[in-house]
Design goal:
disordered C terminus; alpha+beta; OB fold (Dihydrolipoamide Acetyltransferase, E2P); Chloramphenicol Acetyltransferase; 4-stranded antiparallel sheet; 10 helices; 7-stranded mixed sheet; Dihydrolipoamide Transferase
Length: 414
């Protein structure tokens, strides 16, 4: 019985996915739940597990191809392992290779090569006027790769140009293929700029009280497996401000402004190949310790590719911490369809004037990019002013409790 392997829909808004890497080959026997391929969507990178045990009969699309969800990408013949072991199957496959080689195959040479050419190779061949039948392939089963065709082009140019001149010309430019996540991020950012009337307002915030509180509690938190950074404090203050200014926790629609009666905070996490925004659900119901723990967990899961589709869905407001890389100030782009995003700069000590005296304080710039269709500047500034007030009066504000649940028993804000 043949079973179709489809491009899964990793979330309600996901319409397509890209095959990053095949983890199996045609003829391989796979167990149920064994990973078959790595795929990428605008939400997450993940693996497609095998729905059953059996043999890979057909792989229908190459790596790098972007397909609509529900597209059949491979087929498995269900059943228990039969016949020769995997090593014997490999030997049989190698024995069959001459059937598609130029020496033994009773078919036209051009037809054999045509089946081996990827879209990128064909594009390069057309651009440089290369007859692909003249290029010797070094890939699997004689497949012509990008390296093969670029090597052929270089050797052809060497006939008419000095070798050192070609080397210098090649060093001037390098084409880096787009990772699917980078391409998706680019499309989403351009769409956001084209959709919303984006404006950014910036406040300077004194984090000295938070810094003192963090210094008192970070060792106790570390014993409980939590690395206490400034981000949970800012997230907590943001949540309190969203409760008082719900217009920031809304979305624009043609029928009106859709206010969300729940607060799901997205935390932007930088990866090597792009950016991903996992979401802390019902963040308004969590205290500082819970926020610190979840922010740490989602960052680890994002970087180890262990996020689930539901982990990146449903965000109502996003925080991006570019200060972790030393940046002082930025103008972040709103993540549609949200109405605003808060950017956090680096917390640095610098001299400031307090009561006409110079003092050394821990300072940070908070930048709020907001959709001017949804709110005016006064509303955005009122929200950011509330965040500032909470952070600057940490430990002496109305949010302080007499007794803390923090490990170590320190007093604080929740």
């Amino acid at each position: 019985m043949l079973i179709d392997i489809i491009m899964p829909q990793m979330g309600e808004s996901v319409a397509e996915g890209t095959i990053l890497k095949w983890l199996v080959h045609e003829g391989d026997y796979v167990e149920k739940e064994q990973p078959l391929a790595e795929i990428s969507t605008d939400k997450i990178d993940t693996e497609i597990p095998s729905p059953a045990a059996g043999v890979i009969k057909k792989i229908l699309y190459e790596e790098g191809v972007t397909l609509a969800v529900q597209t059949v990408i491979a087929q498995i013949e269900e059943g228990e392992r039969k016949g020769p072991a995997k090593t014997e199957i490999k030997e049989q496959k190698e024995e069959k290779r001459p059937e598609i080689s130029e020496a033994a195959a009773p078919v036209d040479k051009g037809e054999v090569h045509e089946r081996r050419y990827s879209p990128l190779v064909r594009k390069l061949a057309e651009e440089y006027s290369v007859n692909l039948s003249e290029v010797k392939g070094t890939g699997e089963f004689g497949r012509v790769t990008k390296k093969d065709i670029m090597g052929y082009i270089s050797s052809r140019q060497a006939i008419t140009a000095p070798k050192e001149e070609i080397t210098k010309e090649a060093e001037r430019e390098t084409l880096v293929p787009l990772h699917p996540r980078r391409k998706i991020t680019a499309e989403r950012m351009v769409l956001s700029k084209q959709t919303a009337a984006q404006v950014t307002t910036v406040f300077e915030v004194d984090m000295t009280q938070v810094a003192k509180y963090r210094e008192l509690n970070k060792e106790a938190m570390k014993k409980n497996g939590i690395h206490l950074t400034y981000l949970p404090f800012i997230a907590f203050a943001t949540i309190q401000a969203l409760k008082e200014h719900p217009v920031l926790n809304s979305s624009w629609t043609d029928n009106g402004i859709l206010r969300k009666n729940y607060i799901n905070i997205g935390i932007a996490v930088a990866l090597e190949d792009g950016l991903i925004v996992p979401v802390i659900k019902d963040a308004d119901k969590k205290d500082l310790v819970q926020l610190a723990r979840e922010i740490q967990e989602i960052a680890i899961n994002a970087r180890s590719k262990r996020l689930k589709p539901e982990d990146v869905q449903g965000g109502t407001f996003t925080i991006t911490n570019y200060g972790i890389n030393g940046s002082l100030l930025g103008t972040p782009v709103i993540l549609q369809p949200q109405a605003a995003i808060l950017g956090v700069g680096a917390v640095v000590k610098r001299p400031v004037i307090i009561d006409d005296a110079i003092a050394i304080r821990s300072m940070v710039y908070l930048s709020l990019s907001f959709d001017h269709r949804v709110m005016d500047g006064a509303q955005a500034d009122a929200f950011l002013h509330k965040v500032k007030d909470i952070l600057e009066t940490w430990g002496v504000s109305l949010y302080e409790q007499k007794k803390s649940d923090l490990p170590g028993g320190y007093g604080g804000i929740w």
